[in-house]
Input
Amino acid sequence: MAKVPTMKKNAPITAKMSTEKAFQTILQHNFKYMEGWAAVAYEGKNIRGVHQARVAFRRMRSSLGIFRRAFPRTVTDHYRVEMKWAASAMGQARDTDVFISETLANAPKGAGKAELTALVEAHHKDAYKQVRAMFDSGRYKKFKSDFKAWSGGKWGKVDPKAKKKMAMNVADYAKMELGRRYNKLEALGKGHAKMSDDELHRLRIECKKMRYACEFFVPVLGKAAMRKFIANLKAVQGLLGSMQDASVMPVLLGEITAGNKNAKVKKYCDSLVGSSAKGTKADVRKKLPGVWKTFTGTKRPW
Output
């Protein structure tokens, strides 16, 4: 069985680093983290493998946005596309892992459950074939080779304005970026009570981006200072994430049962989707005002 990596998620940046050096350190650290989990994901015996490999890709992609003022899209877009492709290739495996371990494991007995379980297991095997095909592909191997050189400092052509930002002290850059992102997030979330499901999904994504930014800069701004802020931000993100999980379920079940004409399976799937969506959405909308108020009332540590 593939060995589970033990390295920490936070890249070892320091307040004395330049923005360029910090960005480079974050990219290389998370790439190494991803490679460690890739072996576990490829094997497919531990659901943490695909999850953590995808998290590493998301963190690297998020860093491209967080450091965009120093590293514009002209420098990063190629790698953004490649990382999104690699993470997407693991999406079906992750969704099915979660469905099996959380939804199906806790689902009530009933006519159609056994048949659905068999369909899910077949879908699960196919999803992991896709994961292995991605890791074995020439495209992925080229990405790995190119990314190692690029993240080592071979950025390509960078304009003078961006170079000035690259030379900034990373602590100064962190305060500037976190302040800007917080203001955007706070403004977006003010109307949460009247938001549609799609708008709440967008709010969740912005929360996730803000959380990644905070976690990147923990070594610079201090763990104690950031702990409460990140915890309250994660509470908002987690609450909104439960709504997103409920939205994903009918899509996933549609893919799993495509072509199946068993009426018992359809009825059982409909009952799962109905009970999950109704209860989850109502619960989220009830709890969100209090959770959001707690977050926005938290002292900003920058």
Remarks:
- The first helix runs from residue 19 to 43.
- The two ends are 43 Å apart (CA to CA).
